[in-house]
Specification:
The complex is a heterodimer of chains A (about 350) and B (about 325). Chain A is an all-alpha fold and about 350 residues long. Chain A has 15 helices and two strands. Chain A has a two-stranded antiparallel ribbon with strand order 1-2. In chain A, α6 packs antiparallel against α9 and α13 runs antiparallel to α14. Chain B is an all-alpha fold. In chain B, a hairpin with a 4-residue loop joins β1 and β2. In chain B, about 75% of the residues lie in helices and about 0% in strands. Classes of the chains: A mainly alpha (about 350), B mainly alpha (about 325). The interface between A and B is large, with 50 and 54 residues.
């Protein structure tokens, strides 16, 4: 039987060798509690991580509600331009884009240009939500690509070893030795200029593919190392003796034991993927205008500096908040799933009288 | 030691060949239809002229001969970029001082700052100083350099007038202006690394503090400071140094594309970005190989430093 759960290093429910902190924790638990429930208990106590996890959810929901805000509150679409229009702010009539081409700043009126307008008179708040959808979609798809390909290749390399492992490892070394941004813009530009396979020009999906591809070695290497260790364990031996097929062993014996590593990697890759999408877009190799994404919004705002800085600030702050909430939640998740890391921090802080 | 050097040299040559081959194929094979001869000849050229040019530059030869020729040109300094119209080696030489200034200054700043922050967070673990540093490092790793750069340029440059708006000033031309113009890029580039490194250092220090030899050192009656510097830091710094080696190699090889672009620093990274936009294979090949060279070279340096710090490690 496979030993599933967050910590493959610990043998079942044996608590021998754990520091007093965890022994204490283990003694409080009802018998038969699984490793995932244990991790959830630890995570639940980490208020900061939970708060930022919640913030991320709020951002996701807000971005999903973009069409509702656009149609029912602001009554403009993300690409509705309004260069010559006028609105009433605080009793005064003002141009959306002034005669000197400077767009209006935040009006703090939920119905009209809540967060101001951009250089074409488009509503920044509406674009922010639609842009967030694009950025989050690209990040999510990229993370899926990285995780699925990275883990699949790593399991095959680590399980079969031999020439397959050698070849895959060399390829990963090659991708690794390219600077991430350089590889990203190279692939992005190739797609933009000539098209690659089904992609005739840049689409959000092609950007997600590029971003997802670039991060594969970062997942491949640690997972491969773990598979090396797992394939020598008794339960894999036992499965082999029972005559299970190689695929079956990889799928139902090895993969479940990688679950905690995979779960820890997901927020890490997601945060980096969202950042890389914005970076590639800034360099013109990511999402193309007029499509809104946080990257395109920041970029068009940077072109306007020093006028209308809210065009940089609004999407920028949103981007940093999102990435930060993913990072902090991911950090808490790692502490919850990897008790050794948790113990390290707990011991050092208890010894100094905190907590 | 001699064996170590020979092995590293062979690894480097293999990596340079592989990486140049991949880049070359990516542009020549994956990008069909781009006839460089037509590009050079211009829009009004007759087919005969295009043919003449493609014979003269060797575009009619098989791919492997084109590859060998290109590599030969790069290493003899004769490589010429027809897309951008310059000699690649001269352009690299022109951009290198700027990138080196950025990389060396930022490298020193981010190494020292992260050691200070990481150590402080570890010895104050769980207290307010640790929490503040944790929040700062989380903001740091979540901050895209071009957004941070844009904020600095706007608030400190246009609004406060403290930070200069403009590009690089060579060190030989005016050392004060050189420093003045590089402070903001150094800071921007460092923030990302400090956030990440100080977290890594914090957890390795906490891990090392639980080791038996640290307890022994305490039990012997050594002062906390001595234990920290001679026993804990000596071992905890190793992963930081190897991270630093790799990151520094990428930055000095032109990896700081976002920072160089937002601050308008015309270094190797900016050149790489321009070359990609022009689909300029030769220049990109040269830059990628330059980066790979630095990665392997600094990797070897890191191994030597490891051996100096930890006598158990043998170079072989």
């Amino acid at each position: 039987m496979a030993i599933t759960g967050p910590n493959p290093a610990s043998e079942g429910t044996s608590y021998v060798g754990l520091p007093p902190e965890l022994l204490h924790e283990a003694a409080e638990l009802p018998p038969g509690i699984g490793p995932w429930a244990l991790a959830w208990r630890r995570l639940r106590r980490n208020r900061i991580a939970l708060a930022f996890g919640g913030l991320f959810l709020v951002i996701v929901v807000l971005c999903l509600l973009a069409p509702v805000y656009s149609q029912d509150v602001a009554h403009v679409g993300p690409n509705t331009e309004n260069i010559t229009g006028q609105i009433t702010v605080g009793g005064k009539t003002e141009y959306v884009v002034s005669l000197t081409d400077i767009p209006i700043g935040p009006t703090w009126n939920i119905h009209h240009y809540f967060l101001g307008a951009d250089e074409l008179g488009r509503d920044v708040a509406v674009r922010l939500l639609y842009g967030g959808r694009t950025s989050l979609e690209v990040g999510t798809v990229a993370t899926l690509i990285t995780m699925i390909l990275g883990v699949m290749l790593a399991v095959m390399a680590g399980y079969y070893r031999g020439w397959l492992d050698q070849v895959l490892n060399r390829i990963m070394d090659l991708i690794w030795s390219y600077p991430v941004v350089l590889l990203g813009i190279t692939l992005g530009t190739i797609i933009a200029v000539r098209g690659l396979g089904p992609f005739k020009s840049t689409t959000p999906l092609s950007t997600a593919l590029v971003v997802g591809f670039v991060y594969i070695p970062y997942v491949f290497r640690p997972v491969r190392g773990q598979v090396f260790g797992l394939r020598e364990r008794e339960f894999v031996d036992a499965a082999r003796q029972q005559g299970l097929s190689t695929w079956r062993i990889m799928w139902s014996e090895i993969l479940p034991n990688l679950s905690s590593t995979i779960v820890v990697f997901i927020p890490l890759i997601l945060a980096n993927a969202i950042l890389l999408e914005a970076g590639l877009t800034f360099l013109g190799a990511g999402i193309n205008p007029p499509n809104a994404s946080w990257g395109t919004m920041i970029t068009s705002g940077i072109d306007e500096i020093p006028a209308a800085f809210h065009n940089v600030l609004v999407p920028g702050i949103m981007l940093v908040l999102t990435v930060m909430s993913v990072n902090i939640f991911g950090d808490g998740l790692r502490d919850a799933l990897d008790p050794r890391a948790r113990v390290r921090i707990a011991i050092s802080s208890t010894s100094q009288g905190e907590h | 030691m001699a064996r170590f050097l020979v092995r590293r040299l062979l690894t480097m040559i293999a990596l340079l060949i592989a990486i140049s081959l991949i880049t070359f194929l990516l542009f020549i094979v994956v990008l069909p239809g781009g006839n460089p001869a037509a590009l050079i000849a211009g829009r009004l050229a007759t087919p005969a002229e295009v043919h003449l040019i493609s014979v003269r530059y060797g575009f009619d030869k098989p791919i492997y001969i084109q590859y060998v020729r290109t590599m030969e040109n790069i290493f003899t300094g004769k490589a010429y970029s027809y897309q951008q119209g310059f000699n690649v080696l001269q352009q690299l030489k022109a951009g290198f001082p700027c990138t080196a200034s950025l990389a060396i200054g930022a490298g020193i700043i981010w190494l020292l700052t992260s050691i200070a922050f990481g150590t402080l967070a570890a010895i104050k673990a769980g207290r307010y100083a640790d929490r503040i540093l944790t929040v700062l490092s989380m903001i740091g790793v979540s901050m895209p350099p071009f957004f941070l750069g844009a904020m600095i340029i706007y608030f400190l440059g246009y609004q406060a007038g403290i930070v200069p708006i403009g590009s690089y000033v060579p060190l030989t031309q005016n050392p004060t202006q050189w420093l003045y113009h590089l402070l903001a890029p150094w800071f921007t580039l460092s923030v990302l690394f400090v956030g990440f490194y100080s977290r890594v250092l914090r957890s390795t220090i906490l891990e090392t503090m639980n080791e038996d030899y640290v307890r022994t050192a305490r039990a012997k009656g050594l002062s906390g400071r001595r234990v920290l510097i001679h026993h804990v830091l000596r071992n905890s710094l190793l992963p930081i140094i190897s991270l630093w080696g790799l990151d520094f190699a990428q930055v000095i090889g032109g990896g700081a594309i976002l920072t160089e672009t937002i601050y308008n620093l015309h270094g190797i990274g900016y050149l790489a970005f321009q070359s990609v936009s022009h689909l300029d294979t030769v220049t990109l090949l040269s830059i990628v190989m330059l980066t790979a060279f630095f990665v392997v070279f600094l990797g070897a340096c890191v191994d030597v430093i490891y051996a100096l710090f930890d006598p158990r490690i043998q170079l072989a």
